[in-house]
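Provenance and format

Records in this collection were gathered into a single text stream. Each protein contributes a sequence line and a token line. The two records reproduced below are adjacent in the stream.
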Amino acid sequence: MIFSILAGAADAASTPAWVPLAYLVSGVFFILALRGLSSPATSRAGNRNGIIGMLIAVATTLVTHDIANIVEIGIAIAIGGLIGFTIARRIAMTAMPELVAGFHSLVGMAAVLVGWAAYLNPGAFGLLVDGAISPVSKIEMGLGIAIGAITFSGSVIAFAKLSGKMSGSPILLPGRHIINLGTLAAIIVLTGLFAAATGPAATLPFIVAVTVLAFAIGFLLIIPIGGADMPVVVSMLNSYSGWAAAAMGFTLGNTAMIITGALVGSSGAILSYIMCRAMNRSFISVIAGGFGADDSSGSAEPREQRPYKQGSAEDAAYMLEQAEKVIIIPGYGMAVAQAQHALREMCDVLEENGTEVKFAIHPVAGRMPGHMNVLLAEASVDYDKVFELEDINSEFAQADVAFIIGANDVVNPAAKTDKSSPIYGMPVFDVDKAKQVFFIKRSMGGVGYAGVDNDVFYMDQTVMLLSDAKKMVEEIVKALD
């Protein structure tokens, strides 16, 4: 909705001189917002800066707006704000990844609708030059619509996978790479033909074809990607939504959209690249779709029944009391059970006993970037106790206990040893080097989101704690007390 309002700003030739300056100020606040959101300690300030920046951008557009009805815009803002406020109040932290994917889909669709509005009524957007849309504006328009459509359909599939409405396993189409490349090539060619054509009758078939193919390629790019790689997908779609906004900003001559879109697009791309490096993935293969997936998946093989040790909360409490150093590895199972508060309470009890406690966060733990960091921050875990993989992995050899709660793929040694595994090459925590491993999961029947068994379950030093994560941690706290 805000995107659409910004898109309605008058063309650059008729805007007052102070308007670009106001948009620049809002852009500075957006940069400060991104800077603040880079750390849990400054995330609240980052959110506030983002709110201020958006308020300045929207207010500036409304003040200079002389096309749409201000009452209708006010009603639209009120309705959208109420919906957003309600969702923010009710949404559970476990549902944040699919919520983010859903928001990305709305940004993508907004870009498509604004692009089509500009095409159907170019005079209202100041796009007419000698009675026609210039080829440059049509290229920008075509790219904005294409990227927006890809973002929309791709985000819908990501939402379906993350929310469990669609299988998280890769759906591999025969010849998918050829299909994807052919579709992308067709979009580029059709955009060029759209720019070269003149008159509504000549341009309409091309822009319709671009829109339809872009919706299709967004779907085709995401369905081959497995659930274990969804955090990168969410980041990548975030980048796409930014580039869609930037492309529309160029079309409409709106500085705020260009700045905001470029910031979102570049930050999302950089984060995707960093996460790909952390997972030993190729950034190009992410863009191509279907990375980390091949035609033979290890999840298709029947699981071998192997012996394992099962323990109780009292067993874990006894060993934790004796430990001098404990490293906790949280995962999505912790989020589902909402066990972060109980985990922080266990951490407090251990530290009172003189135990050193640290948290190890994998770059792709959870279902979106920073998912575990947000949950731990919600439970008031000190930021200086939380470490990324590369900063703490060497410490497992000195740890008395590796305490795994709801994580799986990020501690699976198959990523280092099994070339046929779908997670092969992904850096994982060296929990096998710890003296003792406690592994909380609901049952031995489940596997990680990648669908492969985990050798850590069966190691000599591993004790399986089969229970709901929150219930088990609460029982451990009682036993420690």
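Adjacent record:
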Amino acid sequence: MITISLCLIVKNEEDTIRACLSSVARAVDEIIIVDTGSTDQTKQVVSAYTDRIYDFKWIDDFSAARNFAFRQATKEYILWLDADDILKEEDCNKLIALKETLDPSVDSVTMFYNYAFDEYGNPISRFKRNRLVKRENYFRWIGAIHEYLEVSGTIFESDITVTHCRIHHKSDRNLKIFQNRLMRGVQFTPRDLYYYANELMDHRKYAKAIQYYNKFLATGKCWVEDAISSCSKLSDCYQYLGNREMELDSVFRSFRYDSPRPEFCCRLGYYFLTRQQYESAVFWYTLATTAPGPAHNWGFANPSFSTWLPHLQLCVCYDHLGDYEAAYRHNELARGYRPQDPSILHNKKYLESVLHLATGDESAPIA
């Protein structure tokens, strides 16, 4: 059986760290906490789980802090989490089982990351990360901000999921780090350009975000998933700025990098739906239900764009086209994903009335 060191870097995480550690403690053999300057009760909370608590002076460099944490580990493998991540019970059990069966020749284990959720708890942002790595390989974190773990060798893809449980609002910390690096004349890598553009967009600086997304794409040194994501975010930026032509161009720009993804199919479906071109909208929404997402789930994916959303919109389209049976069929498919959604339940009642499947109660048509 392999042994595992859990490594975290923390700062003022008293509201989340207990849930994180309690969710995974029984699956790991030691817990390493690196504190970068907490002023709350974080250290007191984590002391109930470990005495391996280290201070690290914050230097606006996440990789430096994470690499320091990794150097404190003593077990065969290192698991890393953030303070607002948890392992649900079934995933903790899977990790315990993995400890007993993992071939020690494996250099890294991937796990899914459910990062964001809809109002019903369904993941709307899901991707993979290298989560468990062999300590003796001395894998390093790269990048001062939005850092990544550079791994190589034999990779095992697990079905374990880490769940993100953010309760804090987004701050301007990352944006300020980027801006300070620019002021110091630091040369941005393509990855830096991409993540700086993301920060600008998150802070509603849309025109400047567009500038940096275009700079990123112009490098020609883009991971395909980041390039596709940039096209999506460019489309969002242009939408917020009211430039519908460039919003649409950004959708088509994504086709340079891969076949149409479900998200872009839904965008095009909505474009034609709002113009009452229902047959064209049906084409794109139907394609969204079958179009492939990111290969091997490494890219950021929102399952909504290939599941309930296109079916709900197909219901709307077919209702306008007078094909109520098709509208009902697609609404039922959407209901399979979101059984309590008020819009879907409204459509069900209305269409059953039209098709005389219910008691005959009249209902308002689909908007």
